[in-house]
Amino acid sequence: MFKDVPYDRYMTEVNRGLAGSGIFLTAKGEKLNTMTIGWGFVGRMWAMPIFIVPVRKSRFTYGLIEKSGEFTVSVPFSSLKKELALCGAKSGRDIDKFKECGLTPVSGKVVDVPVIEQCDLHFECKVVFKKDVDSNSLNQEYDTRCYPNGDYHTLFFGEIVACYMKD
Length: 167
Ligand SMILES: Cc1cc2nc3c(=O)[nH]c(=O)nc-3n(C[C@H](O)[C@H](O)[C@H](O)COP(=O)(O)O)c2cc1C
Fold this sequence. Notes:
By secondary structure, the protein is an alpha+beta fold. Helix content is 22%, strand content 39%. The radius of gyration is 15 Å and the shape is globular.
């Protein structure tokens, strides 16, 4: 059903998704949940393939990743616009977004977090480093523009332990 691919083969599609309607960031704890992200990076750090995801502390997803230290990222190549809009507007605290959107979780290969069947490309990640964005280190204009309420992102650096796509 899935075939492994090099983590950096579909960077154009990942960046197109991020800059477009977003991509899915999934985490699991007391509940399974997914949220839309529009920012993120795939690259190399510490001689390893790394996916960096920025998650504000106010997100339900934040606590799930903090606790489990794992996440997956699922990228639709063609649009799942409605689903991404809902997952980027509603919180998993209040609703089951998988159910609401008709998204199907498929067990991860390595981590204990599923990926989303309706997507084309999947990354499984284990957190190896995290860093809070803080106003002292950030360009002042960015700080004012992106954090008027002080709801800063935490950057979760996830080692990419599996990357695969629909066969
Ligand atoms: C296109 C788009 C991109 C988004 N990007 C991010 C992001 O990179 N980081 C973030 O913390 N929230 C981002 N959000 C907002 C979250 O997806 C939204 O607050 C979501 O409801 C959080 O869900 P949760 O409370 O279930 O974790 C984005 C929303 C949209 C619509």
